Amino acid sequence: MAIAIVDYGMGNLHSVGKAVERLGYEALVTGDREAILGADGVILPGVGAFGDAMEHLRESGLDAVVKEAAAGSKPLLGICLGMQLLFSSSEEHGEHKGLNILPGKVVRFAPGELKVPHMGWNRLEFLQPENPLLAGLDAGHVYFVHSYHAVTEVQSDLLAVTDYGHPVTAIVGRGSNFGMQFHPEKSGELGMKLLGNFLALT
């Protein structure tokens, strides 16, 4: 089973690819439309700023490819910034339009007593444990690094949250499209099980 990891010039491609291979799948790091749409599943990674990432996606034409993949039945997973890109817009360094696969907005953590960026291990709370992405798993800790967080418009898109002064979107999903704000490949046993559950959907 081949999993396309979308290469648009921003993302932790190597570590995600290695994690996919450890779970017994072929990792195909590519920016080619046919390869992405022909894969059994698609992962959209991301590290950096929202606006820069969307610019890279648009310039390469991969924004349309990811949207096309999301409109089909193959599983799609956004990781960290890749999850945020699935939403309608972001206020990071100005207003930027996202892929609009999931309705909602990415906003900055409010200034206060908590440190920004939110960095470290935080516990997940599963809101929809019956979802196949969460099947057979017990809630535990995963690794976050982010200064902005997604606010979903549709409650049913929210699969798991973590607490950082208030409930923070951690996992989203609608149909075959999913997102994880944390890095599953850096989140120990639970992270790898979550990634494995996603890959099993292919």
UniProtKB/TrEMBL annotation:
- Enzymatic reactions: 5-[(5-phospho-1-deoxy-D-ribulos-1-ylimino)methylamino]-1-(5-phospho-beta-D-ribosyl)imidazole-4-carboxamide + L-glutamine = D-erythro-1-(imidazol-4-yl)glycerol 3-phosphate + 5-amino-1-(5-phospho-beta-D-ribosyl)imidazole-4-carboxamide + L-glutamate + H(+); L-glutamine + H2O = L-glutamate + NH4(+)
Tell me which CDD domains the record gives.
Answer: GATase1_IGP_Synthase
Species of origin: Paenibacillus tundrae
Task: Write the Enzyme Commission number(s) for this entry.
Answer: 4.3.2.10, 3.5.1.2
Q: Which residues form the active site?
A: 80, 183, 185
Assign the protein's first listed, main location to one coarse class. cytoplasm
Compartmental location: Cytoplasm
Q: What is this protein called?
A: Imidazole glycerol phosphate synthase subunit HisH
Domain of life, source organism:
Bacteria
Its keywords, alphabetically, are: Amino-acid biosynthesis, Cytoplasm, Glutamine amidotransferase, Glycosyltransferase, Histidine biosynthesis, Hydrolase, Lyase, Transferase
Q: Which GO terms describe its molecular function?
A: glycosyltransferase activity
